[in-house]
Amino acid sequence: MAKPIRVVVTGAAGQIAYSLLYSIAKGDVFGKDQPIILVLLDIPPMLPVLDGVVMELQDCALPLLMEVIPTDKVEVGFKDIDAAILVGSMPRKEGMERKDLLKANVAIFKTQGAALDKFAKKTVKVVVVGNPANTNCLIASKSAPSIPKENFSCLTRLDHNRASSQVAMRCGVSADKVKNVIIWGNHSSTQYPDVHHAKVDVNGSEKAAYDAVKDEAWLRGDFISTVQLRGAAVIKARKLSSAMSAAKAICDHVRDIWFGTKEGEFISMGVYAAGNSYGIPEDLIYSFPIEIKNKTWKMVGGLPINDFSRAKMDATAAELVEERDTAMDFLSQ
Ligand code: NAD
Ligand code: LMR
């Protein structure tokens, strides 16, 4: 049997974690032969809840789960960690914008970034889910200077899955028949879901998404706004933010980091923009089309960008620049 890997989930007493932990522990993410030590980090008042989560994980009787370690201490939580899934933060409530949460989250992700820097393996893969995910990820990365920036990413896979599913439903095909949608930019309502490079398999014949959908007005209108506003729509309906779909997207994201993306396919994730990618300003965590091999991601370059897309890619970049600048002010306080 392989040596166990150590995986930490923060916000482990929360609702996303409740959907996520079982999938990780039963091998859906790191493979069916990979033993796991699962570290559950939350804040002190949630320790009694974590005890319940630990009991349930034990009661699942999962062969890959070697140990479960509940803790409220970052030095325990991030010790020798191979994969860190940073879910814990304050979820947005109905009517609240992500920016309202920026200040509290800068403090959380600064502390956790510094702890990763000090205690985690230098090869650790860090995935930020807690909102505002892109900027939290940037702050965590800046606070962990000894860990390569490429090891940090933020979750836009939920938006990616939402976009694929909308197109699939419109074409009357299953979701796996749609590939290469792109989410550009921020995991917020300014994100740009782009299907100019997407393909749909309709009855065994691969078509460009625009040809398969045959409704440009929808693709440039309601499709985009539905994906952009989906998180808020779920909150309005459930009075809680997405959890089941978020957990599924985290599994997709981390599994692709571990095992790579399929040949000829790309996915979306927020990664460090170094300033030479599609004209996006540097020093942001921006969602791009990404291919992954050998646990290393590569941006898919050279896709033609029309004026419609350019304007939307720039608008979401502008929001990220503003978020970053505000966050950097909080960081220096
Ligand atoms: P939740 O309130 O159910 O759980 C959050 C948990 O985080 C709580 O148990 C809380 O105690 C814990 N927490 C708070 N501060 C912490 C800290 N400093 N260290 C460790 N744990 C801490 O929320 P949820 O529904 O699980 O959502 C978690 C986050 O994920 C929210 O910010 C939400 O907006 C975000 N989210 C992101 C996406 C995405 O696609 N990127 C999708 C859905 C939700
Ligand atoms: C989502 O996309 O469902 C979450 O990020 C929740 C939100 O605030 O939109």
Describe this structure in a few short sentences.
The protein has twelve helices and 14 strands.
Written overview of the protein:
The chain has 333 residues and is of the alpha/beta class. It has two domains: 5-154, 3-Layer(aba) Sandwich (Rossmann fold); 157-323, Lactate dehydrogenase/glycoside hydrolase, family 4, C-terminal (L-2-Hydroxyisocaproate Dehydrogenase, Chain A, domain 2, Alpha-Beta Complex). The protein is built from twelve helices and 14 strands. It has helices at residues 15-25, 47-59, 74-77, 102-119, 133-142, 157-171, 209-213, 216-220, 222-228, 230-238, 244-259, 307-332, and strands at residues 5-10, 36-41, 65-71, 83-86, 125-128, 152-154, 178-179, 182-184, 192-194, 199-202, 205-208, 267-273, 284-293, 296-299. The protein has a six-stranded parallel beta sheet with strand order 3-2-1-4-5-6. Strands 7-10-11 form a three-stranded antiparallel beta sheet. Helix 6 (157-171) packs antiparallel against helix 9. It starts with a strand and ends with a helix. The structure holds nicotinamide-adenine-dinucleotide and (2S)-2-hydroxybutanedioic acid. The site of (2S)-2-hydroxybutanedioic acid has 8 residues, from helix 10. NAD(+) binds at residues 42, 105, 129-131.
